[in-house]
Design goal:
The protein is of the alpha/beta class. The chain has 35 helices and 26 strands. The chain starts with 8 loop residues before the first helix and ends in a 15-residue tail after the last helix. The structure holds thiamine diphosphate and magnesium ion. The site of magnesium ion (MG) has 6 residues, from strand 9.
Length: about 1000
């Protein structure tokens, strides 16, 4: 019997406990159990997989460091008393001398039958705990339940009468405390696990968590009467929610509002989460959600006034920032109303926080239509709110400071990969936020696609199971069960600092939007929905039936809410309306000082290369450190290389009191082994981060090797910058080629969030770029894509050629974080990281600033007839070519900042060459990529406006690869040929005839 369907660890553990008791004293268990154990052979000691799951918040010493001090996951008292009594640790006592031998005398048939029933009951109970959700009443529309045959008595050949005679103790858990026999325990189990809530928590590998969840669930700890709910208040709330949608529906028929109806209970659930957070002293809640129900949440959770919303429906809001078509920078093109966010300070939060007077804020993050992409942004924001990084060393984390809440769609959650990328970060030291509460707004449809065609899993939430996140499925027509689910989720997050998923199952009352006809594709479903009463009506009916309220009063409540909306609407339409939302006024940067005094650089440099006496440096790194060590005293041969310049930039930025966070794949060492910001003790593997031990630092430094994700991690870092604008946050791609994995984050947030939502960000993207024969996917960071997105001063895009330029660029970005924050996109080198031409002398760090354009250093300007304009690595190819020495008439000018386009600087440089008659843009990328298409019209404009000395018209030539579908050749040999051709074309003797304009593809 046992072997055909083995017990899970969970019930086995209980059985073993009981077995121990039996071994100690057979009389301690009842006769049937005694008979059962007499013939039972316990399996080997069970493995508790807790170790697998109890990963430290900070990694073990051999792992990369966690520069953050993660608060220990100290168990906290739940908000209400917990019934669970911890079981003593399982230790197998030696059988006493008087204990019966294991091979007991043969059983009577009656004893055998009793033992069979007992085991069957254990299995049944176990299956109800594990699969009860399959038979639970989860669908408001009453679709047939999937069920599970192992949940029925018949499957085990059991009857209710037999259960009456069985002791229930053997199944353990709180249900047995109230029950007098197995039958009562079974009924209690069915009520809890097969009611309007379905529980999935056995995927969790930490027994303490499973036990806690079992105890919370089975004691119904978060349900009335133990945890009361104000029933009339709840009706009020549901009435507001419904009236809002009804009013909008009637007043603006067919206008898109993405009604919440069918999932109305989300609003009281959010109330509950905010209230519970206030009780815990959480100071900040960051919410991410899509379109569905967003207006309702804005109105009722975010405190956005009905007046504002109604005015938006009439497009009455005045443009907050002048003319939308104004082409001046800092424009404001705005967004549709169901993408907008807001910040709200709930008044009751302050009251609830009592003596502490914690001011709580709830922020709804604006998001694009791209479903789920706001998730990592919310996580990054929450992480930033939980981080204190104003003191040197490692930042300090406080998970209680902020709570992330993500509301998902049932089609989007399993369908969009960004969900998995975000979940994957939830327990990583550099990215955890101490638990996110997920709510799947499950209306059982995605646009016109039902679950059957939208996912391969049973539940919308199944993905989370693999991450061992507990899941509750709950029927959205049972508001009490929904509120209890929200309470349990919050309590679990507080206690275990991990994620929790609520799969809220409701329906969508209208089409995908209100102008959409759902019966075209779901005629049967919508027939049912049309007949189905609203949750407010159902709840009102319950209260009327129980005599809590009269039907007349319930109807009156609805009428009052509608009348209120009508009054507001009339006042909005009769008065000119000014939106209460404002976007920040533009701020301009002044002159930025980025040079650092030599003595200061020397001190910082000394600290960067100073290691603890006990630290065993990898012998191969010793040379690197030695080289860096004496750079400012004795000078360094070949100059300061890229990695060293970056370390100096970081050190000096920290000394200026700006915290730094750097994340990306393998950034501790860096892809090309140039950074070594994290050193590992050669004997212990233990990490040491010199930037966290600078004597002059006045802010914290953190660096995290990220998971293998672009979209997720870049979104996270973008969110971090939104929340912590004073921190210099950098994301580095493994190779720049992989940045297009995060194209949605780049397009929808980095490039456009400011003009859509007024969000600013100083995020830095470090993108290794350059043609080195490594093939189509290790060459290009798609400079052209960023240039295509560049407008209204939304970005800074640079392709610096020297380490000092990189140093000044980073320092300038840090200095502008407050006054003029914009994302900075940097094409960074690969083979040039250690190239002498890319290394700068020490003086270049203590003098000067970032140069947007670098002129040729020729002294004989009169001689120059051709000017080559280029950016980045191709400059080094040109400058180091054998042909360069003889190309006396050629000047090479580097455009180091590509956007904003430094027109004046380029013009000034060209003006210095009076005899130029040939200008070319040189690039190694194909003509349809790189800078060419962006540069061509801009350079032509510059050439047209040149001073009188220069012969006109000055044509502009293109020298580079022809148009290509793929960024680079797959063959290194072919690459070499192409590079040579480009350099030769650029440095070739001037053609005798007048130069012609070369078209794309030449
Ligand atoms: C990334 C992305 N792909 C496609 C769409 C188009 N789209 C908008 S809503 C929707 C259905 C979403 O279904 P679900 O996640 O269940 O949310 P619901 O609308 O049902 O609340 C789709 C496909 C989108 N907005 N984003
Ligand atoms: Mg849906």
């Amino acid at each position: 019997m046992m072997s055909s369907s083995p017990l899970t660890d969970y019930n086995l553990a209980y059985l073993l406990d009981l077995y121990d008791r039996y071994l100690e004293n057979p009389a301690a268990v009842d006769a049937a159990t005694r008979a059962f154990f007499a013939t039972w052979t316990p399996p080997g000691e069970t493995t508790d997989h807790a170790a697998d799951d109890q990963r430290p918040a900070t990694p073990p010493i051999s792992e990369p460091p966690s520069p953050t001090t993660v608060r220990a996951a100290a168990p906290r008292a739940p908000r209400r008393s917990v019934v669970a009594t911890p079981k003593p640790p399982r230790a197998r006592p030696a059988p006493r001398a008087e204990a019966p031998p294991l091979a007991a005398p043969a059983q009577t048939p009656r004893e055998e039958e009793a033992a069979r029933q007992l085991v069957a009951f254990v299995k049944l109970a176990q299956n109800i705990r594990a699969f009860g959700h399959a038979a639970a009443d989860l669908d408001p529309l009453g679709a047939p339940r999937e069920g599970d045959s192992t949940l029925s008595l018949e499957y085990y050949g059991l009857t209710e009468d037999e259960l009456r005679t069985l002791d229930d103790d053997i199944i353990g858990g709180p249900v047995t405390r109230e029950a007098r026999n197995a039958r009562e325990a079974l009924h209690a189990l069915r009520r809890v696990y097969q009611g309007t809530t379905g529980h999935e928590y056995l995927q969790i590998r930490v027994q303490e968590e499973r036990d806690w969840l079992r105890d919370m669930v089975e004691t119904e700890q978060f349900c009335p009467p133990q945890a009361p709910i104000h029933e009339i208040d709840l009706l009020h709330r549901l009435t507001q929610v419904e009236a809002f949608e009804r009013f909008l529906g009637r007043t603006f028929p067919g206008k898109t509002r993405f009604s919440i109806e069918g999932l109305d209970v989300m609003v009281p659930m959010m109330d509950e989460l905010i209230g519970a957070s206030a009780d815990e002293g959480t100071r900040y809640i960051v919410v991410g959600m899509a379109h569905r129900g967003r207006l309702n949440i804005l109105a009722h959770i975010m405190g956005k006034s009905y007046a504002d919303i109604l005015a938006e429906f009439q497009d009455l809001g005045r443009h907050p920032h002048g003319d939308a078509a104004d082409s001046a920078d800092e424009g404001w093109s705005g967004d549709v109303k169901y993408h907008l966010g807001g910040v709200y300070t709930p008044p009751e939060a302050r009251r609830r926080a009592g003596g502490d007077q914690v001011e709580m804020k709830v922020k709804l993050v604006p998001n694009p239509s791209h479903l789920e992409f706001v998730n990592p942004v919310v996580e990054g924001m929450a992480r930033a709110a939980q981080t204190r990084n104003t003191l040197p060393g490692t930042p300090v984390l406080d998970f209680d400071a902020a709570l992330p809440i993500l509301i998902h769609g049932d089609a989007a959650f399993p369908g969009q990969g960004i969900v998995a990328e975000t979940l994957n970060m939830y327990r990583l030291p550099g990215y955890t936020t101490g638990g996110t509460l997920h709510l799947i707004a499950n209306n059982q449809i995605g646009f016109t696609t039902p679950a059957l065609r939208g996912r391969s899993t049973t539940y919308a939430s199944d993905l989370a199971k693999g991450f061992r996140v507990p899941i509750i499925h709950v029927n959205a027509d049972d508001p009490i069960a929904c509120i209890a689910a929200a309470r349990l989720a919050h309590a679990y997050r507080i206690k275990f600092q991990k994620d929790f998923v609520i799969d809220l199952i409701g329906y969508r009352r209208w089409g995908h939007n209100e102008g959409d006809e759902p019966t075209f594709t779901q005629p049967r479903m919508y027939e049912r929905i049309a007949q189905h009463p609203t949750v407010r009506a159902l709840w009102a009916r319950q209260l009327v039936e129980r005599g809590v309220i009269t039907e007349a009063r319930a109807d009156e409540m609805l009428q009052e809410a509608m009348d209120n909306l009508r009054r507001v609407y009339d006042s909005v339409t009769s008065q000119p309306y000014e939106s209460s939302e404002a976007i920040p006024a533009p701020r301009r940067a002044g002159h930025i000082e980025t040079a650092v005094a030599v003595d200061r650089l020397a001190r910082l440099n000394a600290d960067l290369t100073r290691l603890p006496d006990t630290f065993h440096l990898n012998p191969k790194l010793k040379r690197v450190m030695d080289r860096r060590h004496s750079a400012f005293e004795t000078g360094v041969e070949g100059g300061i290389d890229w990695g060293h310049a970056e370390a100096l930039a970081f050190a000096s930025i920290l000394a200026d009191a700006t915290p730094i966070r750097l994340s990306g794949q393998d950034v501790g060492r860096a892809t090309f082994s140039q950074r070594h910001a994290v050193l590992h003790d050669a004997e212990t593997g233990g990490p040491y981060v010199p930037l966290q031990h600078l004597r002059e630092a006045r802010a914290a430094f953190e660096i995290h090797d990220s998971p293998l994700s672009e979209n997720g991690v870049m979104g996270f870092e973008y969110g971090y910058t939104m929340q912590s604008p004073d921190t210099l946050v950098l994301w580095e791609a493994q190779y720049g080629d992989f940045v297009n994995g995060a194209q949605v984050i780049v397009d929808q947030f980095i490039a456009s969030a400011k003009v859509k939502w007024g969000n600013t960000s100083g995020l830095v993207l470090l993108l290794p770029h350059g043609y080195e024969g490594a093939g189509p996917e290790h060459s290009s960071a798609r400079l052209e894509r960023f240039l295509e997105l560049a407008a209204e001063n939304n970005l800074r895009i640079a392709y610096p050629t020297t380490s000092a330029q990189y140093f000044h660029l980073l320092r300038r970005q840090a200095a502008l974080l407050r006054s003029d924050p914009r994302p900075l996109v940097v094409m960074t080198p690969k083979s040039l990281l250690r190239h002498p031409l890319a290394a700068s002398a020490t003086a270049a760090f203590s003098q000067g600033a970032f140069q947007t354009v670098i002129d040729d250093d020729t002294h004989d300007r009169e001689r120059i007839e051709r000017v080559l304009l280029c950016a980045g690595k191709v400059y080094v190819d040109l400058a180091t070519s054998k042909l360069r020495a003889d190309a006396h008439a050629v000047a090479i000018v580097r455009v180091e900042q590509i956007y904003p386009f430094p027109a004046a600087e380029i013009r000034a440089i060209l003006d210095r060459y009076p005899n130029v008659h040939d200008v070319a843009w040189v690039q190694e990328e194909p003509a349809n990529m790189g800078g060419w298409r962006y540069m061509a019209p801009r350079l032509r404009e510059v050439l047209d406006g040149l001073g009188d000395l220069i012969q006109r018209p000055l044509p502009l030539r293109y020298i580079g690869r022809r148009e290509r579908a793929s960024p680079a050749e797959g063959s290194a040999a072919w690459h070499t040929v192409e590079q040579r051709r480009i350099v030769e074309a650029a440095l070739a003797p001037l053609p005798a005839s007048q130069p012609r304009e070369v078209q794309h593809g030449d």
